[in-house]
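Lab notebook, bench 4. Still working through the backlog of constructs that have no structural model yet. Next entry is a single chain of 530 residues. Request: give me the structure tokens for it.
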Amino acid sequence: MARSYRHVAAAVIAAAAIALAGCSGGNSASNNSSGSSSSGGTLVVDTAFSLETGDPGRNYVPTGNMVLHAVYDTLLTFQGADSTTPKPDIATMKQNSDATEFTFTIQDGRTFSDGTPITADDVVFSLDRVAGITDSKANFLMTGITVTKVDDKTVKLSTKTPSLQLPAIVTNPSLAILNSKVVKKNGGTTDDKDGAKSWLDANSAGSGPYKLQSLDLTTQVVLVKNDKYDGEDKPAYDKIVVRNISQSSTQLTNLKGGDSNVAVDLSGDQVKNLGDGFTVDSAPSAETLFLLINQDKNVGGVTANPKFAEAVRYALDYDKLLELAGSGSEQATGVIPPMFPGANKTGVKQDLDKAKAALVASGYTGQEVKLQFPNDNPVGGVEFTPVAERVQEQLKAVGINATLAPAPFATEVQPYVKAQEAFSLWYWGPDYADTSSFLPFGPGQKVGLRAGWTAEADPAIADLVTKAQNATTVDARNTAFSDYAKAMQESGPFVPLIVPGINLASSTKVAGLEYNVTWTLDLRTLHPAK
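Model written out:
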């Protein structure tokens, strides 16, 4: 749960938000200036808000990423659904052979929305500001990174150890480049005295194709075209309205009725029945539902025997679990989701004989094992309770007596984080679009320790984590990731279950609909269909 807190906070906010009715006055698809979502009109997007601020440096939630990616540029970016190859945005990049120095050169002619040229000073200020804001959820992205101005158009990012993930990190909208002069005039600093948030919640200081016109954390965000935009993705609409519609059923009604152009949060069943006149992009998300089996005897008791985890791993019918997930979903092939380099090509297959033999070897004698999970936080439309019930049923078939212990997320998250759960169902997604976001499952790492799994418990896998972290070439790192994924599939305290799908839907009058791991929906690339 790295993006754990990000997505979990998102769920809490969405649940508490006001579910707007289809009627939205002038901000509806049926009230576009051109009568449709044609060039120069208004694009209306419905989504369940996970939105906290219009300040990129303090943003770290999905709707915030979606909106701010349209308003602000970053040093590098991803194009379309790609999550493996960062491309130039504001700057081009060169790195040294040790992967410890990354030199960024600002592309010629790039300006902010007020026409001010983008300079190295803006880059240094923006990144140092994220690192220095103590109330930012995103400042960990800058951990271990030093930013240095080389000249007016060149900046160097340095790390003490190899950091092949750095190019992916700087694509995150939280590391957007701000107009430093404007932000400083409005209270911006690079320390805990920063006071620019309120201004950035109502104004924008970016260079993206759209500008922020208004932001209401419970109702809607309105973006307007940046006429001075000089990047690649020219703004296709005069206005984009992103509305907070927390119920997917209402999103569906609005889309089918023409009150919106795009729905972000429909389920697999809902998109199946949309019919003609609509475009659907169903794809696996970057989230993984998994079982945690604690290896600390003081917490887990019988679950701490590695053979117990092996029994659970082979007892499950993964195809039957996948039935609960809907369109776009896939079986988790390991702790690394399938769209990332190093992921296993196939997942574990049920083997009841192997499961029963491992259960005997574990010393388990029918004790009750409590399966804990949050029951108010669906991921990708997948509810945890039906998954837990099916896991319980399948474990019973091999002799494991699991009792369900659901609780609200707010209650359940602390024992999970504090490694106090013996057996639980959780989820994890990347902090940024790079396979290194899944190394925390390793022994001695963040999620590994939540399962009571120390580095000493499995030195071989711990060594694979270190190899991946210290690799200086992409090939060497991908080999280490692959070896890590295979080893984690064969042993360890985690049983990955499902990669839920995400289902984006739009009117066929809108083109460019495509899921992205970081910003979900790329508002920049949406445009009227020809």
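Notes after review: The chain has 17 helices and 23 strands. The first strand starts at residue 42 and ends at 47. Flag for follow-up if needed.
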